[in-house]
Write a structure and sequence with these properties.
heterodimer, A: 531 residues, mainly alpha, Sodium/glucose cotransporter, 20 helices, globular, B: 109 residues, two-stranded antiparallel ribbon, 4 helices, 73% helix, elongated, disordered N terminus
């Protein structure tokens, strides 16, 4: 028998769930037809999509994971904050507008424009499913651990509960419900982060000098020897034991800055707006919101180490202080039970919304790319079949990630899994997106080898590293993040695959069309009427 | 779902537009911003992990009270991102005008 107390945290969480179910109910009535289900009828406004992109991005791993990393590992954790933001320049300058102009529902639409549909879509779909699953397992693992800590539901039922709710949003509400859940969550999260930062600064009498002076001798309220958290090198960096450590910084940074522009659940967001101009303004909104959020991680990340006692933090499965709990516990210490409840509810909301977004993009890719275009050569056999397949896929994707998350258990580091998802996205997806838009000679073989080499090399390198089958001392690949090797390999694979295969005159002839479409927006998918 | 059929823009002559000097000018204008801006932000950003990785002692030097070079450089990345973003929006307005003029020749409303 489970004993669950009706705590304020649970109450606020239930209020959020109720609100999102109302949204899902109203969205469900609109979610008929592919464009409505997969792309919210392309009716989302720029600022709304900006919030939704920001919401998708500021995941549980960002909010809980990064605040924990900064609090416990100092500056090296802040490197994530910086990389996550700068990555939006890659999205803005290279990807957002051409993608919106030339695509329909998925990343593969852009690739399939002038290349051979079936091999390209099959590979792109495989890569999308891989990235989404990595990312989703990360969120689920985080979710289970948090819910276990916060309301006392054991790990497995907590993960299953999150999975079922997420399926309700996706299956019934489609992209419209998922988008609005994301928007509300982004507003709640920004509010929570702002309040948390405010309270931390209040502790330091709103003096930046006092704040940074304390961070430079952070001692967890006297419970640990003081360290200067502003100094790099607590997590990465060269040491006698790990001479490759400096490269960890570089490899991580590469994965972060190039990975965002290859994340399927971010890319699909640009199809929910009416045109490329709105896609642009949504990136700008997202960049502003995300930037403010990650600057605030300074206060509730570094600041936590000046306020919390290390014994305030619950221990994780390995018996170490659980970084994922830094933000909620900080809220409890600073703002009492009700504020703790609010921040915990925000964390739940974050997990739910991001998991829903991921499932949405994975099932869209499977239904649209693999089922409709690879298996059925681009024709729906019956009306509405694509949406039906996507709904079924959502169940499968949900079940697989729930199972994986329960199998892996709560000791897996969520931020690390997310870092790996970024590496795969940067190595497999980004090279082919860029070549497809900017390189006329690029052909199908190049796309397939690029996707394949990027995907396989990043996964193999992860397995050969200390995050895979090996211990830190014996790992064959010495870095935590494969980006510095796998990203160049992805580009190289796409390039070599192209130049060593016959020129594809048909693809080159269609470059003019793709180029005009991508640059001018002529012939782009329109917003559906009646909204 | 009913999709109203657009009349004139049904089958634009892609080759003809691609060969239009105005299209070439639009593409050139875009690349003239995008290529240098991308190189700039990429190099500026990657300098941070390189410096932090290989010159940690230098990066630990305090400059503003306890705030060190590493943190200030990281903070400058936020300002760099917003600045490049704002510049992009500014130049993109000019591209929108060029684009509208180009398309006006091919699409009748």
């Amino acid at each position: 028998m489970l004993a669950i107390a009706i705590t304020p945290a649970l109450g606020m969480f239930l209020a959020f769930v109720a609100l999102t179910l109302v949204i899902t109910y109203f969205s469900a009535r609109k979610a008929t037809g592919s464009a409505a289900y997969f792309a919210a009828g392309r009716s989302i406004k720029g600022w709304q999509n900006g919030l939704a992109v920001a919401g998708d991005y500021m995941s549980a791993a960002s909010f809980l994971g990064i605040s924990g990393l900064i609090c416990l590992k100092g500056y090296d954790g802040f490197m994530y904050s910086v990389g996550f933001l700068v990555a939006y320049l890659t999205v803005l300058l290279l990807v957002a507008e051409p993608l919106r102009n030339a695509g329909k529902y998925t990343m593969a639409d852009l690739l399939a424009y002038r290349l051979k549909q079936r091999p390209v879509r099959a590979m792109a779909s495989l890569s999308t499913l891989t990235v989404s699953t990595f990312y989703m397992v990360a969120q689920m693992v985080g979710a289970g651990g948090i819910i276990e800590q916060l309301i006392g539901v054991p790990f497995a039922p907590a993960v299953i509960g999150v999975g079922v709710l997420m399926l309700v949003y996706v299956v019934f509400g489609g992209m419209l419900a998922t988008t609005w859940v994301q928007i509300i969550k982004a507003i709640l999260l920004m509010g929570g982060a702002f309040a948390l930062s405010w309270m931390v600064l209040q502790k330091h009498d709103f003096s930046m000098t006092s704040f940074f002076n304390h961070v430079a001798v952070a001692d967890f309220a006297g419970s640990k020897p003081p360290v200067n958290l502003l100094d790099p090198g607590m997590k990465y960096g060269a040491t006698l034991a790990n001479p490759w450590g400096a490269w960890d910084f570089i490899s991580l940074a590469l994965g972060l800055v190039l990975g965002t522009a290859g994340l399927p659940h971010i890319l699909v967001r640009f199809y929910t707006v009416p045109d490329a101009k709105t896609a642009r303004s949504s990136v700008v909104w997202a960049t502003a919101i995300i930037g403010v959020f990650y600057i605030m991680t300074t206060f509730f990340g570094f600041g936590a180490a000046t306020i919390l006692n290390i014994s305030d933090l619950p221990l994780d499965a390995k018996g170490l202080p659980n970084g994922n709990m830094v933000a909620p516990i900080l809220a409890k210490v600073l703002g009492g039970e009700m504020f703790f409840a609010f921040i915990s509810a925000v964390a739940f909301a974050t997990i739910l919304a991001v998991v829903a977004g991921l499932t949405m993009s994975a099932s869209t890719s499977f239904a649209h790319d693999f089922y409709t275009n690879v298996i059925h050569h681009g024709k729906e056999k019956t009306m509405g079949e694509e949406v039906r397949v996507a709904r079924i896929t959502a169940f499968v994707v949900g079940a697989v990630s729930i199972t994986l998350a329960i199998k892996l258990g709560s000791s897996v580091n969520a931020a690390m899994l997310v870092g790996l998802a970024f590496a795969v996205a940067a190595s497999a997806n980004l090279p082919v997106i860029i070549f497809s838009v900017f390189w006329k000679r690029f052909n199908t073989t190049g796309a397939v080898t690029g996707l394949g080499v990027g995907l396989i090399s990043s996964i193999v390198l992860i397995l050969l590293s200390k995050n895979g089958f090996y211990k830190a001392e014996t790992a064959i690949f010495p870095l935590e993040n494969p980006g510095i090797v796998s990203i160049p390999l992805g580009f190289l694979g796409a390039w070599l695959g192209t130049i060593f295969s016959a020129r594809d005159m048909e693809a080159e002839a269609k470059f003019a069309e793709l180029s005009v479409r991508a640059q001018t927006g002529l012939g782009a998918e329109k917003a559906s009427s009646g909204h | 779902m009913s999709s109203p059929t657009p009349s004139a823009s049904e089958n634009p002559d892609w080759e003809k537009i691609a060969a239009d000097p105005d299209f070439a000018a639009l593409k050139k204008a875009k690349l003239r911003f995008i290529i240098p801006a991308s190189i700039f932000f990429f190099v500026y950003y990657m300098t941070l992990p390189v410096m932090v990785g290989f010159y940690p002692d230098f990066m630990k030097t305090p400059v503003l009270g306890k705030v060190n070079i590493a943190y200030l450089f990281a903070l400058s990345q936020f300002i760099m991102t917003w600045t490049v973003c704002a510049l992009y929006v500014r130049v993109a307005k000019r591209w929108d005008i060029m684009n509208a003029e180009l398309l006006a020749k091919y699409v009748s409303h």
